[in-house]
Specification:
7 helices; mainly alpha; flat; single chain
Length: 199
């Protein structure tokens, strides 16, 4: 009997303690701005953000004032470039020498081969990591000699491929300089548009 009475008192105390908390939460939700007001403010911010930016074009840039001495005399860069190719035919002006074209083709081929080797090394590293995780996740991995041999073979193969990749990179550096190893910006990949703000 005493036990039931104490349980009832405890339940009543919990309900009476929870009631003020619920009341305060309801008051806070009434003080918060309505959904319509928040949507209105978000729409205003979006309209303010989509105003056109000032675009600079050739028409909006003021032209530099022309002085009499510069207008009558041709520039030195124009005369020197025309003198250098005075004996050239139009086809020779745009095309490089055969040695340059051969070197560029060799550099391009080396870059392609390096990219393929890097992908192969990356794949081997991932495969080795997965096999290593599988091997060491076994309870009795110390007695799995075939698994250990497979890991050792994969590591040796990976080391060989990395050495080949390093040799190719050294050859490319010797042929085209240190700047040749830097990745150019991807021309075919479209630029990602900026993320739109969530409403």
């Amino acid at each position: 009997m005493l036990r039931k009475a104490s349980l009832r008192i405890l339940a009543l105390a919990l309900v009476s303690a929870a009631f003020p908390a619920c009341y305060l939460a309801a008051q806070e939700s009434q003080d918060a701005p309505s959904v319509a007001e928040a949507a209105r403010r978000a729409r205003q911010k979006k309209e303010a953000a989509t105003k056109p930016a000032n675009v600079i074009t050739n028409d909006t840039i003021p032209s530099a004032p022309v002085t009499d001495t510069n207008a009558n005399a041709p520039s030195a860069a124009t005369t020197s470039s025309s003198d250098a190719c005075a004996s050239c035919t139009p086809g020779e002006k745009t095309a490089g020498s055969p040695e340059d074209e051969k070197a560029n083709a060799e550099v391009t081929a080396l870059k392609k081969e390096i990219k393929e080797k890097e992908q192969a090394v990356n794949l081997l590293q991932r495969e080795l990591a997965l096999d290593r995780d599988h091997y060491y996740s076994q309870q009795d991995y110390q007695h799995d000699l075939a698994g250990k041999q497979k890991l050792d073979d994969e590591q040796a193969n990976l080391n060989d491929r990395q050495n080949e990749l390093n040799e190719l990179k050294a050859k490319l550096t010797a042929l085209a300089g240190a700047d040749a190893l830097k990745e150019p910006a991807k021309e075919s990949a479209p630029a990602t548009p900026p993320a739109t703000p969530q409403q």
